[in-house]
Design goal:
Residues 60-235 form the Metallo-beta-lactamase domain. This is Metallo-beta-lactamase domain-containing protein. Residues 1-16 form the signal peptide. The protein has 314 residues and is α/β, with parallel strands linked by helices. It is 21% helix and 23% strand. It has one domain (36-303): 4-Layer Sandwich (Metallo-beta-lactamase, Chain A). It has helices spanning 2-15, 85-98, 114-117, 120-123, 140-146, 207-222, 265-272, and strands at residues 38-44, 47-52, 62-67, 71-75, 103-108, 131-135, 157-160, 165-170, 179-183, 188-192, 199-202, 230-233, 260-261, 283-286, 291-294. A six-stranded mixed β-sheet has the order 1-2-3-4-5-6, with no helix packed on it. The protein has a six-stranded mixed β-sheet with strand order 7-8-9-10-12-13, with no helix packed on it. A hairpin with a 3-residue loop joins strand 3 (62-67) and strand 4. Helix 6 (207-222) packs antiparallel against helix 7. The longest helix is centred in the last third of the chain and has 16 residues, at 207-222. The chain is globular, with a radius of gyration of 18 Å.
Length: 314
C-alpha cells in the first residue's frame, strides 16, 4: 500500500497542471476584534470558501460555494445564528456582474447534523434576481433522489454544473446520509465531518459502515484519474502542534491547524482502521492531525438537534 501511495503522489505531481489553480490563506483564524459574521475567501474566481464566526457559534463551520457556467452548488448552510442568505446573495451578485447569465443554485449538505443545516430555513426558498434554487433536503431519501444515485452507497453520482463536474461520493458512517464532493476542475475533495483536522465522531452502531466508506474513499483517491490537490473538511479543531486539539466550545483558535489536509491523510487513517471494531468501548483515539471519537452503540447522532442538549455534536 505504501508503494501505491508513493506512485500516486508522483503521478499527481506530473498531472497537477491539469487542475485550475487556486490559493488558500495561511490560516482562517478570525481577528480578535470585530470579526465579520462570515469570513469569505475566494480560492479562485469561481470557488468560494466561507467560515462562520465563532462569536455566533463555537462550531465555526466551513461552507463551500462552487460556480459553473449556468449552475452553482452550495455545500452546507451553516450552524446556529449564521444567517447565510445575505452573504450568499452578495457573493452571487458580485459573480453575476461578471457572469450575467441566469443561474440555478443547488443547495446540498455534507450531512444532516444541526451545525450544517441550521441555515436551511433561509436557503430552502432562497431567491434573488436571475437565480432559481434547487434544495436537496438533508435526509437519506432526498440525497439519493436529489443527486440521482443508482446504487447507494456503492456507486458515485455526478452533479453537472455546466462545464464543471462534481463527483458525489457516498460516505455514510458519521451519519447515514453523509457525502463527499470531488471537484474535477480544482482537484478539491470536500469531506464534511468525515475527514478533517479535528474530532471525527463515529456512532458505535455505525463503525462497520464508517470503515467501509473510508475504504471506498481511499480507493477513489488512488485512482490515477482523480487528481486530488487538497482535502477540505467543514471544521478545524486540531492545533498546529501534533496530537493537540482545542476543547469543545472554543470560539477562537489562534493556533489552529490549517483547513487543508494532504491526500496522504487517507493513508494515515487507513492505518488506524484496525483500532475501530464493533462493540468497542466508547472513547477517543488521538492521531497526529485528527481523532476518532467513538460513541456508545445507542447514540444516534443523526437525531441530535441542539448544542445545549448534546454538547459533543460536531
Amino acid at each position: 500500500m505504501y508503494l501505491l501511495w508513493i506512485a500516486f503522489l508522483f503521478l499527481g505531481l506530473l498531472s497537477a497542471s491539469n487542475l485550475v489553480p487556486g490559493v488558500l490563506p495561511p490560516s482562517f483564524v478570525e481577528p480578535e476584534n470585530n470579526p465579520p459574521l462570515w469570513r469569505v475567501h475566494a480560492y479562485n474566481n469561481n470557488t468560494y470558501i466561507l467560515r462562520q464566526s465563532g462569536l455566533t457559534d463555537y462550531e465555526k463551520p466551513f461552507l463551500y460555494l462552487l460556480f459553473g457556467d449556468q449552475k452553482a452548488y452550495l455545500f452546507d448552510t451553516g450552524s446556529l445564528n449564521g444567517h447565510p442568505a445575505p452573504i450568499i446573495t452578495k457573493i452571487i451578485a458580485d459573480y453575476m456582474v461578471v457572469h450575467p447569465s441566469p443561474l440555478e443554485l443547488i443547495v446540498g449538505h455534507s450531512h444532516s447534523h444541526w451545525d450544517h443545516v441550521a441555515g436551511d430555513s433561509e436557503m430552502k426558498n432562497f431567491s434573488m434576481p436571475g437565480v432559481t434554487t434547487k434544495f436537496i433536503a438533508p435526509d437519506l431519501d432526498s440525497v439519493i433522489k436529489g443527486y440521482s444515485f443508482h446504487s447507494w452507497p456503492e456507486k458515485i453520482a455526478v452533479l453537472d454544473l455546466s462545464s464543471r463536474r462534481l463527483d458525489v461520493l457516498p460516505i455514510p458512517g458519521h451519519t447515514p446520509d453523509a457525502i463527499a464532493i470531488y471537484d474535477r476542475q480544482t482537484g478539491l475533495l470536500l469531506t464534511g465531518d468525515s475527514v478533517y483536522p479535528g474530532r471525527i465522531y463515529i456512532p458505535g452502531n455505525a463503525i462497520k459502515v464508517f470503515k467501509e466508506s473510508h475504504k471506498r474513499l481511499q480507493r477513489f483517491a488512488l485512482e490515477s484519474a482523480n487528481e486530488i490537490r487538497w482535502i477540505l473538511g467543514c471544521h478545524i479543531e486540531q492545533k498546529k502542534t501534533p496530537f493537540e486539539e482545542y476543547p469543545i466550545g472554543t470560539r477562537r483558535q489562534p493556533d489552529e491547524h490549517t483547513l487543508q489536509l494532504d491526500v496522504s491523510i487517507l493513508e494515515d487513517m487507513s492505518k488506524g482502521l484496525d483500532k475501530l471494531h464493533v462493540g468497542m468501548v466508547p472513547g477517543q483515539i488521538m492521531f497526529k492531525e485528527f481523532s476518532w471519537v467513538v460513541q456508545g452503540a445507542n447514540d444516534m447522532m443523526q437525531e441530535w438537534k441542539h448544542v445545549d442538549q448534546f454538547p459533543l455534536a460536531t
